[in-house]
Automatic annotation (TrEMBL):
Biological source species: Candidatus Methylomirabilis lanthanidiphila
Gene transcribed to yield this protein: thiL
Record domain PurM-like C-terminal: where: 155-320
The name this protein goes by in its record: Thiamine-monophosphate kinase
Record has Protease as a keyword: no
Entry's Gene Ontology BP terms: thiamine biosynthetic process; thiamine diphosphate biosynthetic process
Keyword hit for Isomerase: no
Length: 345
């Protein structure tokens, strides 16, 4: 059934029936605004992200359910990077009136279920007709007053850390461009590969389609006061480190042999002729946390006893030079690359 069959009011009611009645909001869907009461002693965090068909996704490579999960997940990652707790979301959808109602059902199911994983309720939003499918989420979070971790606190001499492993999302995108597809939880590959590579491709594609926001890790760093500056790796470690250093008025050097490259990413990258290190540095959409700290390695490790790995990758330096990466032979090159929405393609 097409969306035009039931119209805007009918679609709003259908979406409303998919989503449970918010418990945490003062007002939810049905008024001109939703209403949320901040918890005492907290600052509000606000973030928003757009996913545009043909730019951020294609419907040939992602299901509406996974698209909903990703739209929520990329916003959750921003809250994680501030050390915050996500609370409520507004979802915006622009699509063709000829679009299928079942598509909307699955999209909002994905939005809702990814939100539920992290205690987020969808309390409002907007709908519009458009020839370009666009999904936007605005997420509200909170953090203890004055405890938000920004990009501007890094100091020379501090260590640079990253959670998890990098490159999987970029490797997943490379696999999709090569014709691989994820159907339910099985990967379809249009050529013969080993079972180990098939599993690596499945893992990489899953990480690309459904990122894992590091909410727990970000909050742990903020509550411990361990991170002086933090950013989520959305556009590539190289570009996001430069952004953090620019806001802090510092520079940095990272070591190539310390970059934690995802094993699945490495296998997929090599199969499709890509450099695993380049994918880890420049690929983007890993949504791991990149942070700086004056703490000793053992103290940082103690914050993450059984959650994810955390790796020291470099050192913050005084301003006056460009951010650099040190190769294994000791030579250094300027840190470049990463995804720029308005850069040349």
């Amino acid at each position: 059934m097409k969306v035009s069959t039931i119209g805007e009011c009918g679609l709003i009611e259908r979406i409303r029936s998919i989503l449970p009645q918010p418990r945490d909001a003062v007002l939810g869907i049905g008024d001109d605004c939703a209403a949320l009461r901040p918890a005492a002693g907290t600052d509000l965090l606000l973030t928003t992200d757009l996913l545009v068909e043909g730019v951020d996704f294609t419907l040939q490579t992602i299901t509406p359910y996974r698209l909903g999960r990703k739209a929520m997940g990329v916003n959750l990652s921003d809250i994680a990077a501030m050390g915050g707790l996500p609370r409520a979301a507004l979802a915006v959808l622009a699509m063709s009136p000829d679009g299928e109602i079942e598509f909307v059902d699955e999209l909002y199911r994905g939005l809702h279920e990814e939100g539920v994983r992290f205690g987020v309720e969808i309390i409002g939003g907007d709908l519009s007709a458009s020839s370009t499918l666009t999904i936007g989420v605005t997420l509200v979070g909170e953090v203890k007053t004055g405890r938000a971790v920004t990009r501007s606190g890094a100091k020379p001499g501090e260590r640079i850390w990253v959670t998890g492993r990098l490159g999987a999302a970029a490797a997943g995108l490379a696999a999709l461009k090569a014709g691989c597809r994820l159907r339910d939880d099985q990967v379809e590959i249009p050529f013969e590969v080993s079972e180990s590579l098939r599993e690596a491709a499945r893992q990489a594609i899953e990480r690309h389609l459904c990122p894992i926001p590091r909410i727990r890790e970000g909050r742990a760093l903020a509550e411990a006061g361990a991170a002086s500056a933090m950013i989520d790796v959305s556009d590539g470690l190289a570009l996001d480190l430069v952004r953090l250093c620019r806001e802090s008025g510092v520079s940095a050097t990272i070591k190539a042999d310390r970059i934690p490259i995802d094993q699945a990413a490495a296998a997929v990258a090599q199969r499709f002729g890509h450099d695993p290190l380049a994918m880890a540095l420049q690929g983007g959409e890993d949504f791991e946390l990149l942070f700086t700290s004056s703490w000793e390695p053992a103290d940082i490790a103690a914050i993450f006893p059984d959650v994810v790995t955390v790796t020291e990758v470099g050192e913050v330096q005084h301003a006056g030079q460009e951010c650099r990466v040190e190769r294994q032979d000791g030579s250094t090159v300027t840190l470049t690359g990463g995804y720029d929405h308005f850069g040349r393609r």
